[in-house]
Design goal:
The protein has 144 residues and is α/β, with parallel strands linked by helices. The protein has a single domain (35-143), classed as 3-Layer(aba) Sandwich (Glutaredoxin), CATH 3.40.30.10. It has helices at 43-50, 66-82, 97-102, 129-143, and strands at 2-5, 12-15, 39-40, 56-61, 87-92, 110-115, 118-124. Strand 4 (56-61), helix 2 (66-82) and strand 5 (87-92) form a beta-alpha-beta unit. Residues 17-141 form the Thioredoxin domain.
């Protein structure tokens, strides 16, 4: 059994790993547990997702950052391709400066893979889609 945090209501759900690809829904809000889109979170939302069993792919960004806005479609497309292997989160560094400081974010966009609350991998900058996909494929197996 795995703990999966709902991207809509942030409730944790127990789910057999064999059911991850069977379009599971949240037991509380009845929304899909995987919707193919990144989930915007603050520090509290991040903590709830970090306490679940899926590796997290986290995009630290800001609205004023041109490269962040340019990278957003690549991040969204990767989410639709890699769920349910990982949960994709977006953290606005302006809205969650303490979370950015906790991970030592010095430039944006910064992309992390976090598993069980610990950073597993990091890359800085707005990567081209193919490079980001290769990075994810090389790192996700080590995270989960």
């Amino acid at each position: 059994m795995m703990l999966i945090c709902c991207p809509h209501c942030q409730r944790k759900n127990r789910l057999d790993a064999s059911r991850l690809s069977a379009a599971p829904v949240c037991g509380a809000c009845k929304q899909p547990l995987f919707n193919g889109q990144p989930t915007a979170v603050d520090a509290n939302g991040f903590a709830r997702h970090a306490g679940a069993d899926l590796p997290l792919v986290v995009d630290f960004w800001a609205a004023w950052c041109g490269p962040c806005r340019q990278f957003a479609p690549t991040f969204s497309q990767s989410c639709s391709q890699h769920e349910p292997r990982a949960r994709f989160l977006k953290v606005d560094t302006e809205a969650a400066p303490d979370l950015a400081a906790r991970f030592g974010i010095r430039s944006i966009p910064t992309l992390l893979i976090v598993h069980q609350g610990k950073e597993v991998a990091r890359v800085n900058g707005a990567l081209p889609a193919g490079e980001f996909d290769r990075w994810l494929r090389s790192q996700l197996p080590t995270a989960g």
